[in-house]
Records
---
Amino acid sequence: MVDALQEAHRILVERGVFVDARPDSGVSARVRAKSARGTVIGTIGTQRLTKMDDTMSDRAVREVLRRRLFRSRRRGRLWHAIPFEDSAELNDYLRDHLRFSRRVHWLVPPARRGTPLFVERAVRFEILEKRSNDELTSARRRD
Amino acid sequence: MRCFRAQVNVTVSSGRTFPGGLGFLRPPAEIELGAYGLDLRGLRVADIGAGEGRLALGAARAAASVLAVDPDRGALARGRVEARRQGISNVKFSEGAAQSLRLPDASFDVVIFSWTL
C-alpha cells in the first residue's frame, strides 16, 4: 500500500493533491426504513478481515505523512444511501458482500421495519498535498 | 495549488437515492467530488483504480484531462463505451496497477484513489 502511495507521490506535481477515499469501516452502516432519511431500524458492521485491511491502509497513509511526502489538508466523511426493495433483497446483497457483515443487526422487530430499505454507508476521505522538494529538503535537514 | 476551494463542510450527505445500474452502489461522482471540495477546472487528473470510470467521467466534466487507470480490462472497456455515450473526449482509460504506474514523474495535478487502497 505504501508502494501505491509512493507512486501517487511520484506522478504528482509539487503541491499536487492526492485524494484517498474509502468506505469507513469504523462506522456501522445504518439501515433506514421508508426513505433515505427515515428511521434507523438496523445497523450493518464490517467483516473482521476487511477492518484489518482498512487498518493497514490507514497505516500506509500515516507512513507517507510521517515521511513528509505529503501534508494532510482536510478529512471528511460523506454518506451514501443504497436502496433495497425489502429485507430479502438486502439479505441477497449482503450474502456475497466483501466488506459488510452478512447480517443486519435489527433494532426493531420485523413488524415495525417497513419498506423500502436504505443502507446508508459512511465513506471517509482525506485530502493530502504533495510537499514541495524544498520543503522536503529542509524538513530532512531539520531531522 | 489553486484547486482548493474554500473550506467545505466536511460531512455531507447525498440525501438522494440512485436506483438503476451498478453505479448506485457507489456515490455519484458529483456528490463524491463535491465532498472533496476541489476545483478541478483546467487540471490534469489521474483516477487510479478507476474501474468503469464512475469518478473519472465525473471529473472529466471540469478537468482539462483525466486518465483512468485500472487492472480490469473489461471495466476499462465499459468505461470507454460510457465515455463515448456521454460525449466525453478528455478521458483516457489505461490498464495498470497502482503499485507500478507506467506514467511520467510529475505529470498530474490531482491523483485520486477512491476505493483503491
---
Amino acid sequence: MNGEALPCSLPQRLWQLLLHRWIWRMAWRDTRRERQRLAVFAGSIVVGVAALVTIHALRASLETGVTLQGRELLGSDLQLGARQPLDRPALARILAGEVAEVAYETSFSSMLRFPAAGGARLVQVRSSSGAYPFYGGVEVEPAGSWSAMGANEPVILLETALLEQFGAAVGDRVLLGEAELRISGEVTKPAPRIGRFAGFAPGAYINQAALEASQLLQRTSLSQYYAHLRLREGADANTLAERLQRAFPEMGFRFETPASRREQLGGILDRFEQFLSLIALFSLVLGAIGVASAMQAQLRRRRQSIAILRCIGAPRQAAFAIYLVQASVLGLIGSVVGAVLAVWLHVGIVACFHDALPLALSLWPEWVVVLRTTLVGLMASIGFAWIPLQQVRQITPLVALRSTNSAGRGGSWRQTAPVVVFLLAMLTLLAVLGSASLLRGLLLALGLILIFLILSLLAGGLIRLARKLAQGPVNYLTRQGLSNLFRPNNQTLLFVVSLGLGIFLLTLTLLLRTLLLDQVAVAESGAGPNIFLVDVQPDQVEGMQALLAAQSLPALESAPMVTMRLSGINGVAVSELQRQDAVPGWILRREFRSTYRDTLNRTEVAVAGSWPPQEWSADEPIPLSLEAGLAKDLNVGLGDRLRIDVQGLPLETEIVHLREVDWSQFNLNFFMLFPGGVLEEAPGFHVVTTRIPASISSGALQAAVAEHFQNVSVIDLTSILDTVQNLMGRIAQAVQVLALFTVAAGCCILLGVFLNGREQRRHEAVLLRTLGATRQQLRTIFTIEFGALGLLAALAGGGLAVLAYWPLAVFVFSLQPVFPLVPLIVLLGAACLLSVLMGSWLSRGITRASPLTLLRNG
Amino acid sequence: MLSVRGVSQIYLSGGQPLQVLKDIHFELEAGARCAIVGPSGSGKTTLLGLCAGLDQPSAGVVQLAGYDLAALSEDELAQLRSRQVGFVFQSFQLLPSLTALENVMVPLELQGKPGARAEAEARLADVGLAARMQHYPNQLSGGEQQRVALARAFVHRPKILFADEPTGNLDAETSEPIERMLFELNESFGTALVLVTHEPELANRVGRVVQMRGGRIERDTRL
C-alpha cells in the first residue's frame, strides 16, 4: 500500500539538475577543502589545452601565411627557368595577351671579393630587368637605391649578412669578375630566392651594366635564366606553362607557380607539423589522464560525503551532477587559462623566430582556431572526467553506515562504453584536424594508442619486476620503500606511464639529434674533401691544381660534370611515366649531373655487372653504370635501357653496371657514370676538391681563386655544415621545447599522484614512528619509493625510445644507431631526481608528524 | 509509521550466500521509540539500513510512512528520506567541506524550502552551537560534531529518525547531553525514533528494546 505520489523538490533529469542552483552551490562548497588538489586538476587541463591550442594556432598561422603569401614567396604569377639564354622576342610573341608584365633575370654563383677586408665569398649574383618582384617587394637602405638598378652605370646592392661578414658598408669597393663596383645599397629584405645555392649564398644584385662589366656570363657554365611573369586577370599560369613547354621543347623549362612554391614549402612544414600534432595529442591525452586521475582521487575521498548526501535524500543523479558541474567549471577555467597561455606562447614564438621563418606570420593567432581547439580541449577534459564520474552512481547510501561496504567500482560497461567511444572519436578528430589527410590522421591516432599500449605494457612489466625484487632478500627500508608502490589504490602505473611518455619523447629527440649531428661531425672530421671548386672549365683544371699546390693543399679529386635529364625508360617516355605515376616524380623532373670515368671511387662498391664496360659499337646503346638506389626507385636492372637527354641531344643507354654509393661521404658521387669517349665533347665543367685543415680558414684560398679564376665558385663545406648543424640544433631545440609540454603535463599528473598518496603516506609515517622508526629511516623509505617510481618511468620511457629509435635510425635515416651513453644516463638520472625532489617536496612535514595524531584521529 | 514484515536479507560472501536477517517482523507507531540491541554481527545495522530505505531486503516487506519501499525507485526513496527521515550516525558523517550551518541547511535545501538558513540556525541554537555555526567539522570536537548531526537530523522535522550508535564514538561525559538532546528533540517534534546501540542504559531509556541475535529478533520488550 503506497501513499500519495511523492512530491519532488530537486529535478530528476540530469540536464535539469545541472541547471539547478543548489547543485552549483554544493559544487562550489565541495571545492573548499580541496583547492590545492583541484588546482592540479585544472593544471592538467591548462597544460593540455595550452599545448593543443599553441600548436594548432601555430599550424594555422603557418598555413594561412603560406596561402596568403604564396605570390609573395614567388614574387610573380609564373616563373620559368632555363639553363640557356631565353629567346625574348619569341617568348614575347607567345606571352602577348596573357601577360601584363615580364621581368628577365640572369643568375649564377660567383666569388665576390672585398679588397678592404682581403676576403672573398661565394654569392648568388642576380641581374634582373623589370619591376620584379611584382608582389612583396624588396627593402633596401638607403631607400630608393633599388631604382638605381635601371641606371647605365654598373650598380651592385648586397644583402645585409654579406656586408656584416666583411665589415663593409654602402660606398665600399668590391670586385666581381673583371668589374670593380661600389656598393650602392644594402638589401634588408631580399627578393624571393631562386637557384640551387640560394640557401647558403647571400644575394648580390647587379644591373645589366655591372653584369657586362664583370664578363662572368661568358665564363660560367652554371648560369640560369629566368622570366618572371605577372599575368593578366583571368590568365591561367598552368595553361600558359603548358603552352610554353610545347613551344620550346628543347629548352627544358622549369616552371614555378605560387601554388607549386606553396606546396614545396607546405611539404617541408608538413613533417614538422605532423610531429607537432603528435606532441599536441600527447600533451592533451596526458592532461586528460591527469583530469581523470584527479577526478578518480577526488571521488575516492568523497565516497562518504556522497553516501551521506544520498542518505539524507539527495537523488542519485544529484551527486553525479555536483561533480560533473565541478569538473566542467574547472575544465572551463583550465581551458580558458590554457588558451590565454597559448595565445601568449604563439605571440612569443612568432616574435622570437620571425627571422628564422620563411614567411611573415601574424603575431596574434587566428581566434577561430583558438576557440575551436579550446572547445575540443574542454570537451576532452570533461569527457575524461566523465569516466571516473560514472562510479558516483554506484555509491550506495549504505556506505555512510558501513564504510567497508563495497562501492566506488567503475561505472557499468554500458555507461562507460559510449564515453570511451566519444573520447576515441574526439582524439581521432584532433589527429585528423592536425594532419594533411584522413588516412594520416587515423594512422597518427592509431600510433598514439599503440605508443600508450606499449608503454603501459612495458611499465606494467617493470612494476611486476619491482614487486618481485621487493619480495627478495633486501633490507627492511628498501622492502618498505618498494612495497609502498603497491599500496591499495596506488597510482604507480599511471605515474610510470605519464612520466614515461615525457621521457620517451625527450630521449627519442635526444637520440635522433645526436645521430644526425654525429653524422655531420663525422663528415666534417673525416679525410674527405671540405672545399669544392665548382665550374672549373676544362682548360682551367691544370691551373687550378697548380694554385692548390702553391697553397700547399691537395687536389683530392677532379671530375668532369655534364648535366642531363631522363627522357624515357625502356621505350616509355617520361611524360607517360608521370601519368602512370609508376616512378617517383622527383627523379623524372630532376637534372642529373653525371661524369665519365673507367674506374670506381673508394666510396663506390660494385653490386652487379662490370665496369669499365666492354667495347660497344655505334649502333648499340651506350653502356651506363647506375647507382643501385636509383635503379631500385626506377625499377630497372641490368639490361634495361634509359633514354637520356644531354642538353638537347638524346642518348640511348643500357644499364650494364650497378653501384652502391656511400652518400654520407662528401666525395664527388654520381647517380650515373658513363664510360670515357662519350661525354667529352658535351658542354660541362669540372669540379675539383681539396681539404683544408680545420685550423686554417678558407679565406686565403677563396681570395686566390676569386683573383685567378673569377668564374669558379668556392663552396666551403665547413661553413655549410656549420649552417646545417646550427639549423638542426635549432630545430632540435624547438622540438625539445615543445616536447617539454608533455613533461609539464606529466608533472601535473605527478603532482596529483603525490598529493593523492599524501594522506596515506602520512598515516604510514605516523604508524611507523609509533612503532619506533626514526625520521631518517622514514626519509630513506620515501626516497626509495620516489626514486623507484622515477627509475621505473625512466626505464619504461627510455626503453620505448630505444625501441623506436632503432628502426627509425636503420630504416628511415639509413644510419648506424649511436647511443650517447652520458646524456642518456643524465636524462634518466634527471627523471629519478625530479621524482625524488617532487615527492619529497609534496611530502614535507610528514616525517615530523607526531605519533599522537594517530591516537587522536585514528 | 514503520512496518517490517517477514524481512530476510542474504548477501553473497566469497561466492557463498550469507543470511544476515531471518524473517523479521516489527512495527513502530508514529512518535514511538525503539532501541535495537544485540552483539556485533547480529544484524542491527543491516535492519536499520533496510528500515531507512538505504537497501532493499532479499525477502519481506518494509513500509515506511505508508510507502512500500520495494515499490519505490532509487530517487523516490531519496525523496522519501529527504522529507520523512532523519539520520544520526556513529561517526557523525558531516560533510567536511561544509560549515556546521551549511551541513544543517542541506536537508532543507534539498527540498527547496525557503528559510533554510533561519531554520538551521534555530536548530543549531537548540543544540547549543549558536557560536560555532561557521566552523568546519574538523574544527569541532566529537561531541560538537554529533550535536551538528542532531541539528541536521531534526531540521526538516522528519517523521522518523534512525540513529546508529549515536554515542558510540563519545565518552560518557559527552554522551549524556547528546542523549538528552536526542530525546528532547524526539519529543518536541513528535518524531519516531529507531536507535541502534550497544549500551543497555541508553536502550532502557528508550522504553522498548528489540533484542537481536544471529539475524533474528530474540526478544521485543516494552518497558
---
Amino acid sequence: MQPGLRRFSPVAMTVIGIILTLIMLFPLYWMLINSLETSQQIFAIPVAIVPSQITFASYIEVFQTQLPHLVTSLVISIGTALLAIVIATPAAYGLAHFRFRVTLLIVFCLLLTQMIPTVTLATPMFLIFNKLGLLNSYLGLVLADSTYAVPFAILILRAFFLSIPYELAQAAFVDGTGEWGAFIRVILPLVLPGVVTAALFAFLFAWGDFIYALTLITTSSIVVPVSLSIYSYIGQYSNAWNNAMAVATLACIPAAILLVLFQRYITAGLTSGALKG
Amino acid sequence: MSTKTQAFIKERAETRKGVKRRRRLRRFPLARVTFLLPAIIYMLLFYGYPLFYSIQVSLEKYDLQAEISGVAAFVGLNNYIAVVQDPTFRDAAIHTLLFTVLSIVPQFILGMALAVFFYRYFPLSRLLRALFLLPWLVPLIVSGTVWKWLFNETNGLIDQILAGLHLLPPHFGWLTTPGWALAALIIANIWLGIPFNLAILYSGLQSIDHEFYEAAAIDGANRWQSFRYVTVPLLEPVIGIVLMLGFIYTIKVFDIIYVITQGGPGNTTQTFSTWSYTLSFSEQLFGQGAAQANIILVISLIVALLYLWWSRRTTQWI
C-alpha cells in the first residue's frame, strides 16, 4: 500500500488538486486582479472575488514612475548573474576536479555561507561600503548581491562538473592544451545547462533582493531597484493598493518570463538543493 | 659508443622527458590555483571581511558620532551586555522562537500532506505540482506586499471574510493588534514555506522503493500502518533535512517581517533579525546592531554545523 489517496478516482484527484492549487495561488491571483481594479472596486464592501470589469488604469499610473526602477533592477540582476558566472564557473570546476588540500574546507565554508543570516552582513557592509563610496551605486549592489549568488553558483555548478569525467580534459592535454584551454574548449560547452541554471538563480536572487537594497541605498539615491521602490510606494501611498499591486505584478514579470523560458533549468536548480534564503 | 647504445640512451632520455612532460601536464599547480583565485579573493573581501568587521564593530562604541569622526572606542563586550539586558531582547527571543516553531510545524505538516497527495500520478498532477512551487520564486517583497494588503485593516480580504462570518469584528486590524500581528506574519510565512517542504518531501517519497510497500501489504498493513511503519522511517533522513533547514532559514527571516510590520506594533513582532537591523539603522547604534547580529550568527552556525554533521551520510554534499 503506497502513500497516496487510492480511494479517489484520478478525476476526483485532479479536481481536488485544482482546488488546492487555487487556494495556494490565491494571494497571487488577488494581486493580479486587484491591480486591474479601481480603488472604488477594491474598497467596496463586500469586495468582489471576480471583478465585473477590469481596467489598466493602475498600470498606466505607475508605469512611468516605476520603469526606471525596473531598469535599475534589471541592470543589477544581469550584473550579478555575469559576475557570479565569471567567478564561480572556474572555481566550481577546480573544486570538482582538482584535489586541493583545502577543497573540502572550501566547500564546507560555501555551504555555511548559504545558512548565515544576511542581516549579519548588513551592518558591516553598510559601514565598509560607506567608506569605499560604494553606497547608492550599481556596483555596490552587484557586489553585495553576489555574496549570496557566488557561493550558490559554485555549489550548483560543482555538481554539474562532477558529472563530467576529468578524463575529457586530460584527453585535451595530449594536444598540448593547458588546464584553462581544456576547461574552456572541452568542458565548458558540456556544462552550459549548469551555467544557465546558475546564472538564472543569480539573476533571481538579485532581482528579489530587498535587504541589501534597503541597506546600501539611501533616501536621496537615483539607483533604486524595484524591490525598494515597492516598499517606499506602500509607505508613501498607504491606500493606493491597486497601484501597489500593479507595481508588485510588474516586479514579477521578468522572473515569470525567465521561468517560462528556462523551465527545465529551474527544476534542475530546485532539485539540486537550491534554496531561497 | 655503438649506435645501439646511443639509440638506447636517446630512447631513455625521451621516455624520461615524456614521463616528466606527462607529469607536468597532469598537474599544473599554479594554473589550477588560478581557477579558484577570483572566487577566493571575492569571498574573502566581500564576505569574510564584513564578517570580521562585524565582530570588530560589535566590540566598539560604534554609533553615528563614531561613523562621522571615524574614531570608535573599544568597549569590550559592553555592546553584548547592553543588547542582552535590553527588555526587547527577551521579547525578540520569544517572538523569534514562536515565529520559527509555529512556521515550521504547519509548513511541514501541510508540505507532507501535499507530497502524499501528489505522490500518485493523476491528470494534470505535474502541472499542479509545478504551480505549487510558484510562491517560492516570487520576490519576497512582492509576497510581503500582497499579504500586507490581505491583512489590511480598512478593507483587506481576510478582515472582510472573518467579519462576514462574524468571527472577528469588522476592521479588526491584524497588523495593528499585538499578538495578532505576529500571527499574521506566521500565516504569511507558512504560505511561503509550503513549496520548499513539498518539493523536498515529494522527492524523498519518490526515492522510496515500491517493494517496501508491497512487503507491508503482504503483511496485512493498512494504509495508515504502511505510512507509519514504512514511509516515516524511510523518510526520516529527508524529514530531518527539511526540519533543520526549515529552522535555519526561518530563524533568519527578515524581509517578510520588515515589509509587513517592521517589527511593530510596539516591538511586538520584533525578531532577532529585525531588532538587529533596527538597532543599526533606526537607532544608529551600529555596535549594538552588530552584536545582536553576531548572536543570530552564532545560533545559526551552531544549527548549521549540527545539520551538516547530521546530514553527512545522507547528502553527498562533499
---
Amino acid sequence: MAVTTTRARPETPRRVAHPLLRLVRRRTAFGVLTLFLVSIVVFVATEILPGNAATAILGRNGTNPTRLHNLEIRLHLNRPLVDQYWTWLSGLFTGNLGRSLANGQPVWSLVEPRLVNSAVLVLVAGVIGSLLGVALGAVAALRKDGWLDHVSSVVALGVTSLPEFVVAIGLIILLSTTVWHVLPAVSLLPPGTYAWDSPQLIVLPCLTLVIVIVPYTMRMMRAAMIESLGSDYVEMARLKGVPERRIVAVHALPNAIAPTIQVIGLGFLYLAGGIVVVEYVFNFPGVGQELVYAVNGRDIPVIQFIVIVLAAFYVFVNIIADVIALLATPRRRIPR
Amino acid sequence: MAVDTPATSRPARPGAPGLRRHQWMAVLRAAVRTPRGAAGLALASLVLLIAIIGPAVAPHPPDALLTTEFAKPSGQFPLGSDFLGRDVLSRVLNGGWILLIMAVAATVIGVAAGATAGMSAAYLRGRSDGLIMRGVDVLLAFPQIVFALLLLSMIGPKLWLIVIAVGVSHAPQVARVLRSATLDVSERDFVKVAELQGMSPAKILGKEILPNLISPIMVEAGLRLTYSIILISGLAFLGFGQPPPAPNWGYMINENQIGLPSNPWAVVVPAALIALLTIGTNTFTDAIARVAIGVERRPEEAALVTDLGPETAE
C-alpha cells in the first residue's frame, strides 16, 4: 500500500497542436463522457425498479397480469435493460422520444413549446441577473469595507438564504395581490402562444429569478475581484506607483475576467434548478413546471427527457464557461 | 500507541493539533460571540422553539374543519383560517417539526457521505480518486432539485426517500470541498509519521486527518443544513411531502396561495418562518466560517478562485 505523496506530472511534449486547443478538446470530451454517464443514471433511476412504466400507466388497479404483459410488450419493457437503454438513447438523437404516459401525446411535441418558454425565461433572467451581480460584486470589491460593501453583503447573505418560492410569494403579495395589483400573479399563457407574446407574464418569474441569482453572483464576483486586487502583480503595480484607476483597469480587471465568466456560468447553472420551483409558483408553462407534473404522475418518458435536457444544459454551460475562462487566462496558455 | 503530533509550521491555524479536542465547541462559542453569529442563532432558535413546542400549545387540532374558508383573523382564530376552514395558527404550530427533522437527517447523510467520499478520494489518490471524483462530476451535472425529483419519481414521495434524495444531492459538493481540504492535511508530517508506523489508511483517515478537518466540516454542515431546509420545504411546496391533511409549512403556502386576497396570513406566516429559519442558519454558518476558517469567503467561493477551469495537468 504505497501511498505516493508527490503528484507525478507527465511531461507535456510540445509536438501536439496548440496546447489550448488540446485543453478545449479534452474538456469537451470530458463533458460528453459525463453526459453519457448522466444518461445512464437517469435511465437506471427511472426504469430499474419493479414499478415500471406499465404499472404506472395501469395504475394501482392494473393488476390484471395479461393486460400488464401486453402493455409491457408494447412499451418494449420485456426486453433486456441494455436494449431498452439503447433504444431510448438513440431516440434522444432521432427525436423519437416515445409518448407521454399521461395523455399519449408525443413527448417532443409536449415538451418543445415549454422548452422554448423556459429558454426565454432563463436567458432573460440570466443575462439581467448575472450582469447586475457582476457589476455590484465588482463595485463592492473596489469599495471593500465601505458602507455599500457592508450593506450589500448583509442583504446578499439574507437573500441568498431564501428559498425561491418564498421570494416568489413575497413578490406576489407585494405586486399582485395584497399590497399592489400591478402584475398578474399567474403566468397562464394562452394556448399556442409563446412567452414573448405576453411579456407582462414573464416579469414576475423573471424578477424572482433575478433576485435569487444577483446576490449569489455578486458574492462570487466580489470574492474573485478581491483576490485579483490582492495579488502580487497588483501589489507590484502599486509599489511602482501606477495610479489606482490604471491598476484596476489594466491589472485587476483583465485578471478577473476568467472568474467573472465562471460566475456568470454559475448564475445560469443556478437557473436550471431555479426554474422548477419558480415556474410552478407562477404556473409558467415551462419545462420546470412540466417536470413537477410528470413526477407527480410518474410520467417516465417525460421525466427522462426533461431531466436529460436540464443536465445537458448544465454540462454545456460548464464547458462553455470553462473554455471561455481558459481563453481568458493567460497562464493557462503556456504548456506545463 | 499515541502518535505525538509535531507542531506544524503553520502559525496557530484553528486546524492545528493543539486545538483538536473540543475544537468544535470552541468554534461554536467564538461564533456565537460575533454579532452575526448571535443574530443568526437567535433567529434559528426562535423558529426551532416554535416548531418544537408548537404541537403542545396549539389551540385547535391542526386538521379540524372549524370555520369558513379563508376567514380573516379573529379572537378565536388569531391567524384566520385556511382553504378548508382549518385554524392557521394550529397548523403553523404543528407544521414545522417534521421539516426540521428531515432537514437535519438529510444534512447528516449528505455531510457523512460527502466527507467519506472526499476524504477517501484525496487520501487514496490514484484510481480511487479518479473513480470517486468522476461519480461526483456526474452527480454535479444535475441541479439538486432535479436530482431529488428524479429519485422521487422512482417510488413516489416517501418521506425517507426525500431525506435520502436531498442528502445524496448534497454529497458531491461536500466531497469536493473536503477532498481539497484533505489534500492539504495529508501532506503534513504527522500523517507521514503515522504512515511510517504502519497505520491502516482507514485509521489514518479517522484518527489523524479527520480531527484536522473539523472546521471545514462544520462550515459544510451549516451550509448543507440551510440548503436542506430550502430543498425540503421547496419539495413540500411542490407537493412532495407528507400526504395532504398533515400540516407542513411548505405545502401550506401552496394550498393557501389562492386565498391571498382574503387571508394572506395563511401564506405569510409559514413563508416568514421558513425565511427566518434559513436566514438564521445561513447567518450563523457565515459566522462559523469567519471564525473557523478565518476567511470571509465561503468554501464555494474559495473553490471558484482557486480552481479555475479544468485541471491542466493530471
